[in-house]
Amino acid sequence: MTSALDDSEIRRALVVMAHPDDVDFGSAGTVAQWTDRGVEVVYLMVTDGDAGGFDDGITRAEMAELRRDEQRAAAKCVGVEDVRFLGYPDGRVEATLGLRRDIARVIRQVRPDRVLTSSAERDYRRIHPSHPDHRAVGSATLDAVYPDARNPYAFPELLADEGLEAWTVREVWASGGPLSDHYVDVTGTFTHKIAALKAHASQTARMGEELETMVRGWLAANASAAGLPEGRLAEAFQVIDTA
């Protein structure tokens, strides 16, 4: 396993994901541990998830509002109060300069030591985490971390017009990619993760008890790959040194 900064060295973390519920499926158990240890965590959702759900009886604008509310409720399950949305169209995210600037802006506002995002790489063994929005957000976030947020001459308007000084993120954690080199034992925060996922009722309510069974199976497989004892549960990441 790769070496990550100890949580005691982390004051703030920023989570950048494409859709409401992405962080909860991939990383909510880990986030719950961070907040328990006093790390201030901020969520940034690039879209409002307006293309999700299964109810034809509500408009896409209503779905977006519902999913924003669900993400705020899910965040509270793991100790996160600050949830932000960029409002990009769900299903049409690209790693543009504009998106890089918007993410770099929030990095300079929050000034995190650690950023958690989705992997920019496609995993052919397990396709669902490799949604094109996920990969676009992962790519744009890495570019926003390096070089954009730390370079005072990148997007100079952020400094000139908004007074946002350059900021260097020390490490990035990527989830849902083909390479995992760091595992977090989340057995103790599994119930928080499930509570967060159930808060996304528009996406998960129809799964019933299958939701917990499915997620437990994923996390047990991660724990086995990490060499943890039988019965443990783990979330998997690739850690990138960006200091």
From TrEMBL:
InterPro entries in the cross-refs: GlcNAc_PI_deacetylase-related, LmbE-like_dom_sf
Keyword Zinc listed: yes
Keywords: Zinc
The organism of origin for this protein: Actinomadura viridis
GO MF, one example: hydrolase activity, acting on carbon-nitrogen (but not peptide) bonds, in linear amides
BP GO annotations: glycoside metabolic process
Protein name: LmbE family N-acetylglucosaminyl deacetylase
Domain of life the protein comes from: Bacteria
Listed Pfam families: PIG-L
